[in-house]
Amino acid sequence: MTVALDLDLTEELRLEGLAREVVRAVQDARKAAGLDVADRIDLGLRASGDAARAIEAHRAWITGEVLAVSLGEPRADGHRGRVEIDGAAVEIWLRRAG
Description:
Elements: H1 11-32, E1 41-47, H2 49-57, H3 59-65, E2 68-72, E3 79-85, E4 88-96
Parallel strand pairs: 1-2
Antiparallel strand pairs: 1-4, 3-4
Helix pairs in contact: 1-2
């Protein structure tokens, strides 16, 4: 028996991986803000390059994974954070929805 594996990383898979990194960063920000993992949140994200493309391509999935009731631009109030994902700065803003 022979098994062949295609190890080429497609653009779609790469963006999916970046979206997973965004979710991880948002969950870390949620924890830093003292929010419970089950809290619904308002979320703001600002990114450039491939990170921005990943956020746009996987917008619905990201909001579902982090229990965001809205996804827009970062605001002045709430918890703010900044991470680097694949060489791009990603600004995160969140607060408990309500």
